[in-house]
Amino acid sequence: MTSESPEIATAKPPSKGSVKLVMLVIFLDLLGFGIVLPMVPYIAEQPHFAPDPWIVNTLEALSLSGGGQAVIVGLLSFCYSFCQFVMAPVWGRLSDRVGRRPVLIVSMAGYAFAWALFAFAPDLNWLLVSRIFAGITAANIATAQAYMADVFPPEKRSKGMGLVGAAFGLGFTLGPPIGAGLMTLGRKLQDDDLGIALPIYFAMALSVLALVFA
Fold first, then answer.
1. H or E element: which one contains 45?
2. Is the model's pLDDT at 17 over the cut of 60?
3. Is residue 112 one of the residues assigned to a domain?
4. What are phi and psi of 65, to 5 degrees?
5. Quick check: 77 and 30 in contact, CB under 8 A?
6. CA–CA gap between residue 111 and residue 120 (Å, rounded)
7. What span, in angstroms and rounded, lies between the C-alpha atoms of 171 and 178?
8. Is residue 10 part of a domain?
9. Vertex 68, ends 66 and 70: CA angle to 5°?
10. How does pLDDT run across 98-111, given as a tens digit for each residue?
11. Can you give the pLDDT at residue 56?
12. Closest alpha carbon to 43 in 64, 69, 67, 66
């Protein structure tokens, strides 16, 4: 008997559709991370996103508070990155049991839902919930990498990992300028609220579109 998964043992040639799906998942994960970066300072300036007293008091007790805007920027970044770090091995183990594709599709659906939460968040608490959920569902990058390792034979595996790196870099590179451009457009068309919302709607639409094609 062998302990290898059926996907690894058969080493089936990768289909173009499956490889494109995996690259799209990684691209959207990093695009979603980058698209938020230029928005955070503007979000921090909005009165209805001010941190609750219990958050400020807790951080002050831990000597971590640096002012209202610093609290918001730090919390939004921390929630996403920490949850992604914690959940990556969980998604990986689950994909070993049920398969890579189901995990990728479920996580993509969750990522789209996280964007919807972010778009309609009435206060900072809901923003944090949305970023926690986004971090949990964006922890599928390890699963995507494992999928590429499964479907590419050993002699072509470096090509698969190269495609992963390309999707990773492209998403993170395009995210901030897209976010900044859509923010500028929204503010010109209406006001700061649309400037914040427009990049989120764009990211949510991309996630839903990717889920449909999956």
1. helix 40-45
2. yes
3. yes
4. -80, 135
5. no
6. 15
7. 10
8. no
9. 50
10. 988 888 888 889 98
11. 66
12. 69
CA distance 53 to 40: 20
Task: Give the CATH number of the domain where residue 33 resides.
Answer: 1.20.1250.20
| Structure confidence by residue, pLDDT tens digits, 30-51 | 887 788 888 887 887 777 777 7
Give the type of residue at 15. Answer: S
Q: Which residue, 133, 25, 140, is CA-closest to 91?
A: 140
Selection from 15, 6, 23 nearest residue 161 by Cα: 23
pLDDT for 56-96, tens place per residue? Answer: 667 666 666 555 666 777 788 888 889 989 998 899 889 88
**pTM score, two decimals?**
0.77
Full residue range of the structural domain in which residue 176 is found: 15-213
Residue with tokens 């923010």, as numbered in its chain: 183
Of 67, 66, 72, nearest to 41 (Cα)? Answer: 72
3-state secondary structure of 7: helix
Phi-psi region of 63 (alpha: psi -120 to 50; beta: other; left: phi over 0): left
Single-letter residue type at 202:
F
CB 210 within 8 A of CB 25: yes
The answer to whether position 5 is within a domain reads no
Measured at the CA of 26, the angle between CA 22 and CA 32, to 5 degrees, comes to 140
Closest CA relative to residue 197, chosen from 207, 188, 206, 187: 187
Classify residue 4: in a domain, yes or no: no
User: What SS3 state is found at 57?
Assistant: helix
Distances in Å between the Cα of 126 and the Cα atoms of 13, 19, 115, 175, 181 are 43, 34, 11, 22, 25
